[in-house]
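The material for today's practical consists of a large collection of protein records. An example says more than a description, so a record of this kind follows:
***
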Amino acid sequence: MKRKGWRRYDHTIFPVFHERFEEKWGAGTAPFLDPSVYDADQPRPRAQWINVDTGAAIAVVPVWEDDPSARSFAVFYLPPHGDIWVLRPPGLANYIESSSGDARAGDRAVTLRNDSFQKAVAHAEAFIYGTR
């Protein structure tokens, strides 16, 4: 059963994700959510949904800390009236961004990234639409 009002939004990340994250955890803590970074420089893939009835939103984005090659996907939920929640996907959602020239290593890294992304998207969709 599909929950009413949710729509996929595959464009620029909503600035409110960045604003609420940094309000909660401090300035400079969410470069992965910063909409001021030129779109081509943002890591991919990403996915977003918005509930047109309530104003709530969900985003799946790659995150990193000190090492930009070590990333994972996070699912962020914006309730309609403030705050931001991190919805932790079950299972491994980490991957390595390959910088090596080895084509096989690059192919494995892409496969791992895509698998991690699909797990995070499935988790977001289960939150939105319920378990299947």
